[in-house]
Amino acid sequence: MTLNGHDDVVKSLMCWDKYLFSGSLDCMIKVWASTEDGCLESILALSGMTDSDVKSVHLYELPTFTDRGRLFAKQEVQTLQIGPGGLFFTGDQTGLLTVYTRLAEKWLRRAFSF
């Protein structure tokens, strides 16, 4: 199936529960859901904007979109991956890999970078 709905290159896809999330260079995150006839349809579109001076990622809790924090990087973050045991990883344009872990009181903490 080919999904059409972004105006630029799709850089990330994520399945969560019964939804598919797509993120694109058009600064949009779209949420897709299956219709009764089995097709995928965009049910929500979140618009953002890029700022070359700010190297950060905002984190939101789903499905409420509660603000859960912000990650800062030396250069533009190129990838963000969820790992086992509450770990997640970011990689920026400098080649720096940073590992984070979730904490109840702060929600996240940088574990180490290399």
UniProtKB/TrEMBL annotation:
From the Swiss-Prot or TrEMBL record, give the protein name: Zinc finger ccch domain-containing protein 48
Question: Which InterPro entries does this entry report, sorted A to Z?
Answer: WD40/YVTN_repeat-like_dom_sf (IPR015943), WD40_repeat_dom_sf (IPR036322), WDR86-like (IPR044715)
The superkingdom of the source organism is: Eukaryota
User: What organism is recorded for this protein?
Assistant: Quercus suber (Cork oak)
